[in-house]
Amino acid sequence: RKMTQSPRVTPCAALLIFAIAAPASSPQSAPQAAYTRALQLEKDGNYPAALALLWEAAGAMPRDPDVQQRLGEALERIGALDPAIEAYRRAFAARPDFVRADTSLTLVLVKAGRGAEAVARARGRVAEAPTDPDRLFTLGLALSEQDVDEALKTFRRVVALRPEHALAHYNLGLVLKRVDRAGDAIEALRR
Known about the structure:
Blueprint: H1 11-21, H2 29-43, H3 47-60, H4 65-77, H5 81-94, H6 99-111, H7 115-128, H8 133-143, H9 148-161, H10 166-178, H11 182-190
């Protein structure tokens, strides 16, 4: 009488079976997973680990504006302004209507000591939409380190277009305070 034994599966064989049976991952899945994990790490406050994953995801997805924007923000946070500028440029190039990338690029140019370039960029964007309060506000921010009088005019224009624009009132007050016009600054800040 013959007994039948069930076949034995060794650990190596089990691994091979798992590898064959597992679905192949798409080329986007690993970078997208790195990006998703980076967002969670940022949310948890673990910025160094998030930066490493954002760098990985951005390298694999150079035309993804959201990934490039987040990489720019992470680089700017650690003071790596030139790489942040390049990341914001890629984000804006990938999505020309990406207001956040446009604003981030202009403001990091100011931080990097490239104020004239920031102002020229912001003026160009305002020329495309002269009554857009957000574009004007960004121009005002860029001007505030370059030309105080023009910054004041620009912030006042923003307030005229959108009286409830709290940040325009606030920045108008800051610029006024900087030029020793305390009374006007207090009035702007009260609004």
